[in-house]
Design a protein that fits this description.
Strand order of the largest sheet: 1-2
Radius of gyration: 21 Å
Number of domains: 3
Shape: globular
Largest sheet: 2 strands, antiparallel
Number of strands: 4
Distance between the termini: 53 Å
Helix content: over 70%
């Protein structure tokens, strides 16, 4: 008798050898590392200003936004693991941003090419996520922040000027992209309409001025105009009724609504003051960096942290979120030009209050 045929399926080693990664896992490494770096930088601000600048700058303005943006963009396509080619860019982006932090701590100039490579990897990640797009929202705005970050690091400038450009174009650009999508229902925004992304267009003009002539007052004023346009585009005037609605509603959802809406009003107040003072005064780049990093980027980071970070770090947030962290950060920004030490106290107090929101999650099984 002849040998019987075997119909058992042969093992497929191709699938086993393809790299696979969950975006939340790789993002977790970036969030933890950048948060520790930024916190150490905050603490050392009055003692070691150069170390403060390096850690708070690359930790808070490069690596942390990058790590959260990776998950945000990925969530628009679905939360499953990324395999093969799509798994490599997010891993490279986070790893290179961490190496940039380590390089600047060690005093190496390699932080800049590492940051550029990190942003190139982030650009590749975003492109691979949105190239097959089935959502109503436009795709191109999602690519703007990493591209703006790359352009911010190309001209020759000082470290302070690089961080200011990253804050005004890269980190601020992320906020302008993310907010219309995350607050669409509350503020009655239609993120599918191009008019929603007018702030990105104004910000791109600022980026063009910066790329053409380098650091200048004109590019900063144009970037500040894009920030003020952003508040108009999200219909910030609806924030006050939403605060009252959230407080009357109560519960975790009500407090989250009041927390986010209060954050927008606090940031608007800080940025109106910063824009006015910068337009009529003669603030140097270092003070302007603190104003935008705390008053706009910082307030939004402290707004989104209890809303987005729990799913990444597997922690829980207290249901009663009193908006002290974003308010404290906005006050720190307003005080920075005139009372640096008092500003520093508000910065630390708001940061500690934010940390107190988080409690470990009980692991199942």
């Amino acid at each position: 008798m002849g040998e019987g045929r075997s119909y058992a399926r042969k093992p497929s080693f191709g699938r086993l050898t393809r790299p696979s990664v969950r975006l939340s896992s790789i993002s977790r490494a970036g969030v933890i590392t950048s948060s520790i770096a930024a916190l150490i930088g905050f603490i050392l601000a009055p003692l070691e200003p150069p170390v403060h600048m390096a850690l708070a700058g690359l930790g808070g303005l490069l690596a942390f936004p990058l790590s959260v943006y990776i998950v945000f963009v990925g969530s628009l396509r679905g939360g499953g693991p990324r395999r093969g080619l799509r798994a490599l860019p997010p891993v490279a982006a986070v790893a290179l941003s961490i190496l940039a932090i380590l390089a600047v701590i060690a005093g190496y100039d390699a932080w800049r090419p590492l940051a550029v490579a990190s942003l190139l990897s982030l650009t590749a990640h975003v492109y691979l996520e949105v190239r097959v797009w089935k959502r109503r929202e436009p795709r191109l705005p999602l690519l703007y922040p990493p591209i703006a970050g790359l352009a911010s690091l190309l001209p020759e400038a000082s470290f302070t000027q690089y961080m200011l450009a990253l804050a005004l174009h890269y980190a601020a650009g992320m906020i302008m992209v993310v907010s219309p999508m995350t607050f669409a229902r509350n503020y009655k925004i239609d993120p599918s309409k191009p008019i929603t992304y007018t702030p990105i267009a104004v910000n791109a003009v600022s980026l063009g001025i910066y790329a053409a002539v380098g650091p200048s007052k004109m590019y900063i004023l144009t970037a500040l105009a894009s920030v003020l346009t952003y508040f108009y585009s999200i219909k910030v005037w609806r924030a006050l009724p939403l605060i009252l609605q959230g407080l009357s509603k109560g519960g975790a959802g009500g407090w989250a609504l009041a927390y986010g809406s209060t954050s927008h009003i606090a940031s608007l107040a800080a940025m109106v003051l910063a824009s006015t003072v910068y337009a009529v005064g003669n603030l140097d780049d270092l003070i302007m960096l603190h104003l935008i990093a705390m008053g706009f980027v910082g307030v939004h980071v402290y707004m989104y942290t209890p809303l987005m970070i729990p799913s990444i770090l597997r922690v829980r947030v207290t249901p009663t979120m009193i908006p002290v962290p974003p308010l404290g950060m906005a006050i720190a920004s307003i005080l920075r030009p005139w009372a640096p030490l008092l500003s520093y106290a508000f910065l630390l107090a708001s940061t500690l209050f934010l940390i107190s929101f988080f409690v470990p999650s009980a692991r199942k099984g």
